[in-house]
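Design a sequence for this backbone.
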């Protein structure tokens, strides 16, 4: 009888132990599941952030292309091969001095026959002008002056027409530059405003 009682107690203790082990394992399983769910949520969040980043980058590339095509159409009808009566060349009507300033040493024939080179030169000029006009972009971007919305794209378009110096003078004292055709930099600043080009200057 005594042996049976001892055996029963041992069995009972073992049973409780088994229950404790089962409960512990169940808790561990639950914790692992919770951690797995947290990790999945974190990965999903990172994926969404990356997708949004890629979406914005694609949008800015499209905006830049639209901006360049709009400028090119205004300058030359998007024709790479033409030269105007003042000697300005290609889709964006570059002068030799401007090309030299941004480091492009090419002949007229080489420049006119190479659309890719013209696109590279335009991007280089935009970055060159943005670097020198950054403080004006920081101050005036988003403001309305004389009924005109000022944006980065408009400022850079105006600099393409009349040079960065003419843009600085406009913001400093209101002086409006006109090119050889009588076109005002403010007309470019207004016409090409609002493109989200988001150019990044290399440090």
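Sequence:
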């Amino acid at each position: 009888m005594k042996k049976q009682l001892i055996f029963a107690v041992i069995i009972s203790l073992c049973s409780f132990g088994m229950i404790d082990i089962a409960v512990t394992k169940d808790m561990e399983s639950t914790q692992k599941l919770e951690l797995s769910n947290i990790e999945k949520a974190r990965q999903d969040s990172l994926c969404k952030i990356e997708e949004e980043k890629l979406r914005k980058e694609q949008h800015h590339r499209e905006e830049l292309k639209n901006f360049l095509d709009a400028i090119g159409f205004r300058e030359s009808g998007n024709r790479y091969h033409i030269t105007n009566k003042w000697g300005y060349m290609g889709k964006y009507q570059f002068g030799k001095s401007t090309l030299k300033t941004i480091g492009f040493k090419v002949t007229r024939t080489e420049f006119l026959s190479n659309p890719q080179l013209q696109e590279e030169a335009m991007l280089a000029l935009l970055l060159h002008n943005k670097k020198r006009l950054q403080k004006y972009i920081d101050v005036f971007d988003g403001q309305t002056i004389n009924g005109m919305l000022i944006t980065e794209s408009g400022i850079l378009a105006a600099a393409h027409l009349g040079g960065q110096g003419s843009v600085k003078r406009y913001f400093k004292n209101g002086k409006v530059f006109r090119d050889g055709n009588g076109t005002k930099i403010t007309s470019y600043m207004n016409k090409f405003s609002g493109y989200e080009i988001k150019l990044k200057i290399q440090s």
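Strands lie at 144-145, 148-149.
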